[in-house]
Each structure stands twice: as structure tokens, then as C-alpha cells.
User: Fold this.
Amino acid sequence: MNSSHPEPGIKPINQPAKQTLTERDSQVIWHPYTQHKNMLSPVPVIQGKGSLLFDDQGQGYIDAISSWWVNIHGHAHPYIAEKIYEQARKLEHVIFTGFTHEPAVRLAERLLEILPGDFSRIFYSDNGSTAVEAAIKMAIQYWRIQSKPRNKILAFRHSYHGDTFGAMSVSERSLFTAAFWDHLFEVVFIDTPTEENYLETIEQVRRLSGQIACFIYEPLLQAAGGMRIYEAGPMDRLLEAVRSEGILCIADEVLTGFGRTGRLFASEYLQNRSDIICLSKGLTGGTMALGVTACTPRVFEAFLSDDKTNTFFHGHSFTANPLACSASLASLDLLEVPACRERIGEIGLKHGEFAKRIAKYPSVRNARSIGTIVAFEVNTGRDEYINEVGATITRDSMRHGIYLRPLGNTVYIMPPYCITNPELDKVYEFLEGCIGHQFSQPLSDLKTTE
Assistant:
């Protein structure tokens, strides 16, 4: 018998042992936001259900951050899966230049019904970064079409809008963008408004108003910038002043959209609306990538011209993918169920109570919450993404069957809306135990923020 073709069930003596998924990963994968030298081995996830993720040993982990903030209805939701399956049997994809399809049109119709503002058109892209990229390009080209030289962009300090070059340019010059600073275009950065500084900020805007094409902002919550929450009142006064100068306003609701802040959109807390709004993350319920950039008639109609050079020359191969649009429609169906809205409110109340409890620990600073998000700083080391306390908390949480991924020393919880009260309580109890045990020394003994 040829030894190179063994009988079924007979293992050749020199055949290497089967590699684990983690071992195979280590040979071929480059993970995002990961320093691979001395990295911890990634956990092989085999299945998800509700708020839980399961590894190859059957161990479950509470996904307390919704897998990078996208999974609003939980994992493997049967209703969303069924709608994707139904669509996949009809049409998986078609070029969106010269063609259209029902899921894209229906999703646009439904979004325009619920978006906070006078939006009239939906432009589809691939994710949050590309939704922002499209918005910036719309705003810049809008003024070129008007033959008015507005070439500056206004943004907030501590902002984060994505990882493509335009999105990086309008984001804080931070660790995330440091390698590319010389290649980013100039942006005017201002502080988020407070009752104390908003008049000064408004005056700064007015001095530059004739040069500013657009103002991009994350309404009320700067997420990747450290889960920074700011007040609606001063922001409304700033937006009123910005709009009075004719500046286009871009609301980046990639994270804050679809219930995250307690309301369907964070812009609902504000009286002044944006001209452009960017959506992604929870848009599809976390099932696949899709981006939306919606605009008002003012923006869209500026591009209507007999001059072909006024076309918005932007697009993506998977623009308006039918499967992603179908997933989004299913996610909207679930959001419209009263029980879902009620659960968002319940999570918000529980987060508020937890914020009060955790704030009593001497090593905790600035406990805060908004909607389904609660956050605080562990007052040790510098306030920065590479603060090692974050990795420590992640490792400890995994040992307790919980997945948390702090932004350095900024710890936050942002769960799927389907998380149960016992699961939430387990996350709270872990964090209180972790903070109380590991960081229980007096505040004066800790390495405080520099």
C-alpha cells in the first residue's frame, strides 16, 4: 500500500498535530489596533447568541461593549438572519450606478422618516469612515459649485471620525493619527462647548466664518476620544451661531445613532439640526458593514446641474449592498418594537445607578452615563489609550466570563440592548470588585493623571 495515501482513520506517524484556530491565526492575520509583539493570543469565537460570545471550549463571555459598539440587538439574532437569508436567495449584490433595488429604496424611505432634520437624500457607502469621507467631500464640493472660496473645516478637539485620510484629518491629532500628521489637511479645532466657554468659541467661529466650509461633530458624546459627554444647551447655542454663518453642519452619528444615547439619535437632544448626518455601526444591527450619509435639499440640489463636472464623483463597489440593506431594515423593525425602546430606558437607569456607586471609589474619577453607555476613569497613570490598566482589566474580565475593552484608563460599558439584568449586574459586580481590589490604595499613593 502507498504510505502517502493512508487508509481512512489511520494517522501517518509523521503527520503534524492539527493546529488550533488561534495558532493558525498567529501565522496569517494582522489584527486592528494591536501590537503583535508579545500580544495575548486572540480568543477563538465559535458562536454568538444574544449578549454572549462562545469560544472553542464552550466558555461564554458577556459582550459588554457590543463588539466595538455595533451589535445593538445581540449576536445571531434569528429575525435579522432570516431577512438576510431571504434576500440572499433573491439578489446578493448589484452595481448601484444605473441600477436600484427594493432594500436600498425602502431603507432610504424609512431612514428619512425618522432622521432628526430636513433630510431628503440617502447616499450609501461601506462603513463609518467612508460615511464621514463622503460627507466631507459633499461639503467641500458644495462650496466649489457655489464658486465661493471656503476651504477650512471646523471640528472638535478630542474628536474621532474614522481611519481614512479625510476622516483622520478631521479627528484629534492623537496616537491614532500620529504617523500621518504630515499628510493630513489643516483643520480648525475648537473645544466642545460649555456654559463657561461657548461665547468665546462662537466668537472664534465668527472670525473665520467666511472661510469655513463645514463643521463636523459627534453629538453629545465623543466616543473613541474617551467617552466624553458634553451638554446639549451650549452645543445648541454653538450650532445656532454656526448655522447663522451659512456653514454646513455634519453630525457624525456613526456611534450615537439607533438608541445608544437613550434617544433614537443624539441629535434629538438638540434644537438645531445638521445639513448632513453620518450613520453606520448599529445601522445593520451589527451584522455587516454599511454606511449612510444623508443630506438636506440644500446640499443635494446644489449638485443638480447641466455641468457634468458638478457630479458627486464618489462611490464604492459595495454601495447599497442588498444584504446589508435588508439587515438594516430588520434592525429597524426590532428597534420599533416597544419592548426594545423600554429596554434601552431600563439600561440607562441601571447605568445611572451604577455610575453613582462606582464614583464612591477613591481610584475612580468622572463617572458618567448617557443612555446605554456608562464610563469612568481609573485614576492611575496618564489619560491615554496605551495606559496598561486597560489591558489589565480586559485580561481580568475575560477570566470572569466578561469582555471589556477599556480605552486605556477609560473604562466603559456599552452592551447590546438584549443584555439581561443578571448579566449587567455581573459586569457591574466585576468592575466594583476589580476597582476595589486592584486600586484600593489611597488616592495619594496612585500615579495620578499628569
